[in-house]
Amino acid sequence: MFSWDDPEDRVAIVQMNAELRHAQLELLSAECATHQLRLRFSSENLARYGERDVLRKAITTAGALNNYYSSVERHIPGGSVRTDGNGAIFTEQQTAEATALVLAYLREQRDRHYAAGEPLNAEAKTLMRPFFSAGILDRVRVLELRGARIPNPAFYEDARALGFTDLPQISHMASLTFIDVVVFNDTMTERALFHGLVHAVQFQILGLERYVRAFVSGFLRTNAHFTVPLEAQTFALESRFAQNPSAGFSVEEMVRLWVKENRY
Hints:
With about 260 residues, the chain is an alpha+beta fold. The chain has two domains: about 5-85; about 90-260, no CATH class. About 60% of the residues lie in helices and about 10% in strands. Helix 8 packs across helix 9 (about 210-220).
């Protein structure tokens, strides 16, 4: 065991942490590269068409790293931890508390806006029918704030106290989906509606609690709203829709595929 009081040990500890920071940066670079791979190619295609030797080496390396850092984690005082993209450490309790805050917020906002929301009109349903099932289009309600904007959640203060930083600015978003209610921070556009409906599908397929757990864990991994897998998929599908609104595809199939591949 090292001792901080021993001068020789103190030097070794400083060197160890310098090497740890270097390793963490290298791992982050590898994670970013892997994330781009995941966004573009399914695990089935990678397994079928990827170069076998490179693929096996990548799997072996990833497995060895996971085993090593898992063994380190078991010795950390205070139980399991998570880290955000800046290296901040969060305990399982902090993560659970953050998840509970987001769950409560989504439920409260859904109840607040549901009565004021309206069903999709016939024109919107016709536009979105090539991408979404009738069940989703009939169930989701929409609300235009027309100049008003939803403020940041009150729980942001509590989240920052827990150590969470770089929280997304709610008032800057074109739309927000509260389970089955899509609220627009101004007026509804076709692209913002599509984006909101993708999230509604994710809520339906994953369920509220699993969705929130996936969002919180994704945010801790990336420390950026736009790179959380739930959001990354939504923006990718939104871009595909914007490029060719007449070329229909099933959003529900895309979400189920990501669930099957454990990409959230």
